[in-house]
From TrEMBL:
Belongs to the MIP18 family. It comes from the Eukaryota. Signal peptide: none annotated. Pfam families: FeS_assembly_P (PF01883). Residues 42-118 form the MIP18 family-like domain. It comes from Ostreobium quekettii. Keywords: Chromosome partition. The lineage of its organism: Eukaryota, Viridiplantae, Chlorophyta, core chlorophytes, Ulvophyceae. One of its GO terms (biological process) is chromosome segregation. One of its GO terms (cellular component) is iron-sulfur cluster assembly complex. InterPro entries: FSCA_dom_sf, MIP18, MIP18-like. Gene3D superfamilies: Fe-S cluster assembly (FSCA). This is MIP18 family-like domain-containing protein.
Amino acid sequence: MAAVGLINPSPVVYGRKETRRSEVVASSRDDENAREPIDSLEVFEHIRDITDPEHPYSLEQLRVVNEDQIDVDDSSGHVRVSFTPTVEHCNMATLIGLCIRVKLLRCLPQRFKVDIQVLRGSHGSINQC
């Protein structure tokens, strides 16, 4: 039985991806003043468990976000996350983008500028959040 009022009442749900953090270089761990680099895997770890506004599944389980759609330039302090709504006419895309933005602004150092966008061609009317 389909849920009433949902944009995508029967989304495809995927398993959680196993991720592995590469070893941190020992010299950077020993230096208290060293700045810990931020990479796409760390950003993905922060946003993967955000719950979809319409379903009890995470953005990762719905493949709304994945590590390949995250670009991090640590040296310039810039993060860009592209996400894919579950359906082309998703009216929750703006809310999803806002959830991702707020999560990253709370988790990342203030030196980062965060850009969130809908993956080009994946939504009928929205190109950027």
